[in-house]
Amino acid sequence: MASIVFAILFYLATLLLVVGVLFRISTYAGTPAPLKIPTTPAPTTTGGVVLRMTREVLFFESLFKANLWTWVLGWLFHGSLALVILRHLRYFTDPVWDWVAFIQPFGMYAGITMLLGLCGLWARRLFVERIRYISTPSDHLMLLLLIGIAASGLSMKFIAHTDVISVKNFFIGLMRFDIKPLPADPLLVVHLSLVVLLLVVFPFSKLLHAPGVFFSPTRNQKDDPRERRHIAPWAKSFEVSE
Amino acid sequence: MSDITAPAYRTIPIIPALKPGAMEGKGPFVASDKLNEAIGFPGQLVEDWHDRAIARMGELLTKYRSLKVFMDACVHCGACSDKCHYFIGTQDPKNMPVARQDLLRSVYRRYFTLPGKLFPKLVGARDLTREVLDEWYNYFNQCSECRRCSVFCPYGIDTAEVTMAAREILDSVGYGQKYSNEIIGKVHKIGNNLGLPGPALQDTLEGLEEDVKDATGIDVRFPMDVKGAEVLLITPSADFFAEPHIDSLIGYAKVFHATGTSWTLSSMSSEAGNFGMFIGNYDQLRAIAMRIRQAALELGVKRIVVGECGHAWRVAYSFWNTLTGVGDGADPNDRFAQMLQKQLDHRYKQPAHICEFTWDMIQDERLTFDKTANDKYIITFHDSCNVARGSRMGDLPGGQFEIPRNIIKAVANNFVEMAPNTTREQTFCCGGGGGLLTDDLLDLRVKGALPRMEVLQQAVDEHGVNFMATICAICKAQFTKVMPIYGFDRRMVGGVHQLVSNAIQLGAK
């Protein structure tokens, strides 16, 4: 029974995530940027912009300049999350790719550092006056959701083992539209339910910062307004009549 | 008007405690029917302001990718929360960039997102009430659009863009700010932000010629409306009469004189400032920029050079090409842009900043200086926000930092820097930019200047600084007004070309 419910939930949640995020991305891409507004000093070439964006996305360069504590915690969380997600590829590949097998132990520790990073970020939200001031209930809940996912995941590793072979069979089956039984393990149920919830809220929440950052004109524009004209379609219509 | 208080100094960097409601209030003077209507906005708050404001927001969300992305991408991480000079100076938490933006974002969520429609409390979404509208008016007129927060945001979210959108919405429902809208009206009607008519301008320029002749014995011209001049100088109108701005104007004239460059001002476009940017209105931005294209075409100039004005340089550098086709790539259907393209001399950057012009001349060894003329000064440089974070000079990123400093070092012996986390792209705003340079906001301006004053005081204590050079008319006007309140001599502030003017040797080459 649980396997059918989760199969349906995962199909729907994944569909929602993919369609939702693609829709948001298409609205960002489809909205014109009528003026050149890179925050200067800015790179003057496309290569420079790629480099700036890479530093921003991989190393959180601006956040590093802004606040060291937020940077440490934020980077710890995001870096760990990336490793953890990659580690989870073993539940979706058969045979498991070599590099995925290689990172398994690192991914496990990353689960712990991810939890630490999240708790640090939440502590900041709770105890730093101005960060508490700007927090909405959903900001707290988002952190709790991620903390719940990390904690339930870790507890299946360190406290009560789940039958991971069956879990893997279930997900491989899902990908082949062949529903296999899922262990009725309470920790697993909690973990998977929270993951489904995360997939659902992603396209409707501030998690859109992930695709959004690539569309930020202050970061993705070249600084070349004198050399190249930059005009939006809606602004072009002013010109013909004059 | 509320009492004006200069807060006590602390040591930068500082994260002040929150004082909620510290800057609550009615905001600056509201524009009258006459001022609003003169520039095409409803005279006063329209009856159906709620629906029209939401509709306008929806329209802006489809026209500006910046706004669209910035409304979604903020995660409330707080990276910007201690970066705004108005927050540091006022301690009002709504002056934290993230909180200021959320005044708009909360309404965006309510009307344009599913969670905001379903669970407003959960995601911090709010209905657009009259209280919210007043809050927009108050706090979006406490932002100088200086972009300091955008330097630190991991997603590059720029409060200036959000402030511009909010002001655009307010203007569209007839709730404009007096100072900015009055100035925009003046530039359309008379040609400059101060409302100086052509004959008065001519008179001033003749007076300047006499002054310079008395001081130097040399006939330095201040030409106006000269057809066929090589350079059209577009400078903030404060340069024509305000102190210390006028000293920089004299400096530009001396540079042109010493290099034998023919130049002219234009009576119809005697203004570099473009307050269309401050109210986020593309049509106004474009209309004001168009005046300069028209003047350039009528006078037949080969080059356009912009004087010491921060936001004007941002508009000129970043937007003129887009708005009027000053640089390369005019629309084939745009006859006047095509004409301008043919007329301008593309061996030079178009437009150029006066500092680029002067620095090129210094490098070509076409100017000589007596640096000892500035020996009475120990000079520091205040990077103006719109130059530092919104534009460039020269060929390399960061040229806007190097070129003015290079000029100062070429004309003076004593130059020192202020604290590194408060200069260049991390510079603090003077506190008067973005359409806030009005006496009804003086209390805010004084508090907004606090971080710069604290850092300047450090430089005074450590190095004996007695002159702060800057290349922005608003910085100059703001500092001369605010610095005496902090116990500084107002004459401590001046332009880079004021220093050039002191040291330049006329007739040496």
Summary?
The complex is a heterodimer of chains A (242) and B (509). With 242 residues, chain A is an all-alpha fold. Chain A is 69% helix and 0% strand.
Give a description of the structure.
The complex is a heterodimer of chains A (242) and B (509). Chain A has 242 residues and is mainly alpha-helical. Chain A has one domain (2-25, 60-220): Fumarate Reductase Cytochrome B subunit (Up-down Bundle), CATH 1.20.950. In chain A, 69% of the residues lie in helices and 0% in strands. Chain A has 12 helices and no strands. Chain A has helices at 2-30, 46-59, 61-66, 68-87, 98-127, 129-134, 137-158, 164-175, 186-201, 209-212, 217-220, 233-236. In chain A, helix 7 (137-158) runs antiparallel to helix 9. Chain B is mainly α and 509 residues long. Helix content of chain B is 48%, strand content 4%. Chain B has helices spanning 33-38, 49-63, 65-73, 85-90, 97-112, 114-118, 120-123, 130-140, 148-152, 159-172, 178-189, 198-216, 245-258, 282-299, 310-324, 335-343, 354-363, 385-390, 399-411, 442-448, 450-463, 473-482, 496-503; strands spanning 231-234, 263-264, 303-306, 352-353, 379-381, 467-470, 493-495. Chain B has a 4-stranded parallel sheet with strand order 2-1-3-4. In chain B, strands 5-6-7 form a 3-stranded parallel sheet, with helices on both faces. In chain B, helix 2 crosses helix 10 (159-172), helix 14 packs across helix 15 (310-324) and helix 19 runs parallel beside helix 23 (496-503). The longest helix of chain B has 19 residues, at 198-216. The relative contact order of chain B is 0.13. The mean pLDDT of chain B is 95. Classes of the chains: A mainly alpha (242), B mainly alpha (509). Chains A and B meet through helix 1, helix 3, helix 6, helix 7 and helix 11 of A and helix 2, helix 3, helix 5, helix 7 and helix 9 of B. Chain B: Pfam families: CCG, Fer4_8. Chain B: This is 4Fe-4S ferredoxin-type domain-containing protein.
